[in-house]
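We were asked to recover a plausible sequence for a given structure. The inputs and outputs are reproduced exactly as logged, with field labels preserved.

PROBLEM: sequence recovery
POSITIONS: 131
GIVEN STRUCTURE:
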């Protein structure tokens, strides 16, 4: 059998994880929403946390959108910084078939018997004392 090596070029880059950017954007959105909402007086008819929950719909959405935009920008920058490298692909074949396992390798292993704990002796128990 003949071996054939191939040489090609490939682009190598560090691509950002878009899900992480979106998750961080959502967390930043909720933190900013809580900070902005609690800085104003609450409506006594609705309550502070109901207002925070309602406003977080907008804050989290804005954070997710900004996180996705940041991820797209980071992806575009990583494409510009990609490097072209030469990759060599070869095939490795074994010279001989592997040897069959020996009898010692295939023999079943018997478990060792477990030691039985001795019964505890109570000083006041005369029935268990042989003397």
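RECOVERED SEQUENCE:
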């Amino acid at each position: 059998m003949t071996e054939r090596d191939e040489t090609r070029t490939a682009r190598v880059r560090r691509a950002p994880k878009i899900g992480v950017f979106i998750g961080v954007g959502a967390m930043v959105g909720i933190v900013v929403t809580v900070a902005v909402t609690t800085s104003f007086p609450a409506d006594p008819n609705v309550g502070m946390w109901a207002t925070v929950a309602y406003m977080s719909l907008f804050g989290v959405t804005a954070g997710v959108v900004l996180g996705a935009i940041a991820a797209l920008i980071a992806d575009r920058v990583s494409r510009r910084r990609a490097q072209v490298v030469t990759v060599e692909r070869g095939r490795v074949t074994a010279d001989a078939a592997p040897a069959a396992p020996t009898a010692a390798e295939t023999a079943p292993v018997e478990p060792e018997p477990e030691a039985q704990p001795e019964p505890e002796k109570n000083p006041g128990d005369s029935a268990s004392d042989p003397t």
